[in-house]
Amino acid sequence: MENSILDSVKKVLGIDKTYTAFDTDILMHINTILAVVTQLGVGPTEGYAIEDAQPTWVDFLGEDPRLNDVKTYVYLRVRLLFDPPTTSFTQDAIKEQYKELEWRINVHREDESWVAPS
Q1: Whole-angstrom Cα distance, residue 50 to residue 27?
Q2: Where are the domains of the chain?
Q3: Ramachandran quadrant class, 116 (left: phi over 0; alpha: psi -120 to 50; beta: rest)
Q4: Dihedral sign of CA atoms 15, 8, 5, 80 in order
Q5: 45 burial via Cβ count (<10 Å: 0-12, 13-18, 19+)
Q6: CA 115 remoteness from chain centre
Q7: Confidence class of residue 2 from pLDDT cuts 50, 70 and 90?
Q8: Closest C-alpha among 74, 105, 61, 66 to residue 10
Q9: Taking a C-beta distance cutoff of 8 angstroms, is the pair 5, 58 a contact?
């Protein structure tokens, strides 16, 4: 599996990693979604942004395999921003998938770092 955040998102979007014409657009969308993931409580607490293909998923997520769903979440959200499907049915299906992944990411975060209200 591709370790570069940018290259792996480009791969699932169907874009060869050597084709860079859309990199600025894709990077902007990836950074938007990484900010959302950080708000969900995953990733570095100070935030995280990428500027090229060098940063890897391990840099953002660490080594925890239970966070692999974050990769799919980022792809689905970037897909809707960068290359939305033409039918509302497909758009709705993707939205349902990423909503479920948000829930799962939240469950994982709560299991790891839940602080009871005082």
Answers
A1: 7
A2: 5-113
A3: beta
A4: positive
A5: exposed
A6: 25
A7: low
A8: 74
A9: no
Q: Is 86 exposed, middle or buried (0-12, 13-18, 19+ CB in 10 A)?
A: exposed
Averaged pLDDT, 61-70:
91
State both tokens at 68: 């692999």
Contact (CB, 8 A) for 49 and 34: yes
- In the structure, what pLDDT confidence band is assigned to residue 109 with cuts at 50, 70 and 90? confident
Q: What residues have CB less than 8 Å from 91, skipping those under 6 apart?
A: 80, 84, 85
Q: Is residue 99's pLDDT more than 70?
A: yes
Over residues 24-56, the pLDDT tens digits come to 999 999 999 999 999 998 999 899 999 999 999
- Report how far residue 73's alpha carbon sits from residue 16's, in angstroms, rounded to the nearest whole number: 20
